[in-house]
Amino acid sequence: MTSFWLFLSDLFIWSFGFYDFAGNVLNWILFIVASTLFCYWCYVLVTTLGNNKDKEYYSPTEGKFPYYNPELHTKED
């Protein structure tokens, strides 16, 4: 009976080592995916906003103040 418990103990020790290894592999995979997404995000920001391309943007609501209209927000006495 003692040999069974020793075998079970070895099995648990092996399984925790396996979980530790699998966790490290998963951690590296997630790190590589996150780093790739971050680099892609930086690339998109640089290519779309770099070289002052944002100055060519035209806003259809510029100067119209859609959130504040003095005619609608007058104080009534």
UniProtKB/TrEMBL annotation:
One family from Pfam that matches here is DUF6341
Against InterPro entries, the record matches this protein to: DUF6341
Transmembrane spans: 25-46
Q: Which domain of life is it from?
A: Bacteria
UniProt entry keywords in alphabetical sequence: Membrane, Transmembrane, Transmembrane helix
**Can you name this protein?**
Polysaccharide deacetylase
Q: Which organism is it from?
A: Cloacibacterium normanense
